[in-house]
Design goal:
Blueprint (H helix, E strand, L loop, with lengths): L16 H10 L3 H14 L3 E4 L18 H5 L20 H11 L4 H11 L12 H8 L10 H12 L12 H10 L3 H4 L2 H18 L3 H8 L3 H12 L21 E6 L2 E6 L6 E4 L1 H9 L7 H34 L1 H6 L9 H8 L3 H7 L4 E4 L2 E4 L7 E3 L5 E3 H14 L8 H10 L6 H10 L5 H4 L3
Parallel strand pairs: 2-5
Antiparallel strand pairs: 1-4, 2-3, 5-6, 7-8
Helix pairs in contact: 1-14, 4-5, 5-7, 6-7, 8-10, 10-11, 10-12, 14-16, 16-17, 19-20
Length: 458
């Protein structure tokens, strides 16, 4: 092989350390940024950083903190809107669902609070793994002695809680969980032989079934093979985890980056002071380094000074970019703030990028893990983006509005005859929204709404 030399020209994009840092800071959440700046201040004495965020600035996401009596004392149920910055547009948790159901019950506020406290002590699977006696003792001083003992009141509250959806919630063990689901069946189903045998097994003989000792169960219940198999198949349809359809990984705290308020009929946005990083240079140190520039041993300090300046500039630039994106979003979603999710207009990253004169990838970074506090709740920036769906009038509506309509339709459906995806298509069409059945199915699944046969009440 003959050796030769060739000259080639090529173009490569080289990111400077300053630009790399700017990109990194832009994609961090407020809490991640705080940790980053604390670490930077520890490593560079020229950076002056004052952390403004504390636990008091972060509201609990839920009304009842897990296993916390203190959190429940000041959280009585109310029909008034809660405008705390902690409300987040995240997938509904089991506790969200239970509290919403408890609010609808026609019982006293004290009973609702007691049920809510018990709900707040369920584990991630929906089980109550704390002794009811311990909870009753903890709550005794908050109960009315004329309404029975603390334990009696706690038992009544638990029984009420166990009657809520999803079936099986509030159980203290697997046997009770399965039994509660069986007892949620319709009256006709409870008359079947399979149901009666299954209920007896779940009540008294579940451990024997777990050991697969079917002969012993047959002898104890005096049933034949066919009836026993039918009952076992029925038990297999029950859920071991009542909370499986809910999101169990919901962050309990967050810091909104911006705050949206109504000013003279127009929705405006401003940076959240609690989330704005208090970062600056130590001017005295910087002056000493500047005055001694070029002297021996100052090169390292000069580099530290340059890094500190970059960081301060990039943090300020990050806040400015977040505010620009937030303003552009709010300007385009005025109807959402006036009328709710059903009025959300279609919006894509490109539209915001063109408006503020930045690249689409920059807008994408800004909309991730950045939150907007509004009177309607606290939403991630990404929540306001959605694809366009056509209507039969030639207009368009956002996918968020379609998801809202689907959620409303399912919430109002007859539980014994739930709506199929095709029926939801027809329902939306009657309101002027032309949506394909596969689109309905996709959005329904994204909302974690089960298929029609799984929603049908047995």
């Amino acid at each position: 092989m003959k050796a030769s030399l060739q000259l080639r020209f090529s173009q490569n994009l080289a990111l400077t350390p300053q630009l790399q840092q700017s990109i990194k800071l832009l994609q961090l959440s407020a809490m991640e940024l705080e940790q980053e700046l604390i670490q930077a201040a520890e490593q560079n004495p020229l950076i002056n950083y004052e952390s403004e965020t504390s636990f008091s600035d972060k509201e609990p996401l839920e009304h009842f903190s897990h296993r916390s009596l203190g959190a429940s004392r000041g959280n009585q149920f109310s029909d008034e809107d809660d405008d705390r910055l902690s409300r987040v547009s995240l997938p509904e948790s089991l506790l969200d669902s239970l509290i919403a159901q408890i609010k609808l019950l026609r019982i006293s506020p004290e009973e609702k609070s007691l049920m809510g406290f018990i709900a707040g002590n369920l584990d991630e699977h929906g089980y109550l793994d704390i002794e009811l006696e311990d909870l009753a003792e903890e709550l005794a001083t908050h109960m009315d002695p004329e309404d029975g003992s603390a334990l009696e009141q706690a038992k009544r509250a638990l029984i009420r809680l166990q009657q809520l959806e999803p079936a099986g919630v509030g159980a203290r063990d697997l046997a009770e969980c399965l039994r509660l689901q069986l007892e949620n069946f319709t009256a006709d189903n409870k008359l079947t032989v399979a149901w009666k045998i299954a209920h007896k097994i779940c009540s008294d003989y579940l451990d024997i079934l777990a050991n697969k000792d079917l002969a012993r169960i047959k002898k104890l219940l005096k049933v034949d093979d066919e009836d026993l198999q039918d009952s076992i198949q029925l038990i297999k349809t029950l859920k071991h985890n009542p909370a499986s359809e809910f999101d169990i990984h919901v962050d309990s705290t967050l810091i909104p980056d911006v705050i949206v308020k109504n000013h003279k009929g127009q929705w405006t946005v401003a940076l959240n002071p609690a989330a704005a990083p208090k970062i600056s240079l130590h001017e005295e140190y910087a002056k000493v380094i500047k005055d001694n520039r070029g002297k021996e041993g100052m090169d390292g300090l000069q580099q530290k000074l340059q890094e500190a300046r970059w960081l301060v500039k990039n943090v300020l630039q990050r806040s400015d970019t977040i505010l620009k994106v937030a303003k552009a979003i709010v300007d385009r979603q005025q109807n959402f703030f006036n009328h709710g999710p059903i009025a959300m207009r279609p919006l894509v990253l490109r539209e915001i990028a063109d408006t503020i004169g930045m690249h689409e990838s920059t807008v994408s970074r800004v909309t991730t893990q950045k939150y907007m506090a509004t009177p309607a709740g606290c939403f991630e920036f990404k929540y306001f983006f959605g694809s366009q769906i056509s209507t039969d009038t030639g207009g368009s509506v956002s996918s968020t509005a379609i998801r809202t309509l689907i959620k409303q339709a399912v919430a109002e459906e007859n539980k014994e005859k739930p709506l199929s995806d095709t029926q939801i298509v027809d329902l939306l069409a009657s309101k002027g929204f032309v949506v394909a059945r596969r689109t309905i199915a996709k959005y329904r699944e994204s909302l974690r709404i089960p298929a029609v046969h799984l929603r049908r009440k047995q």
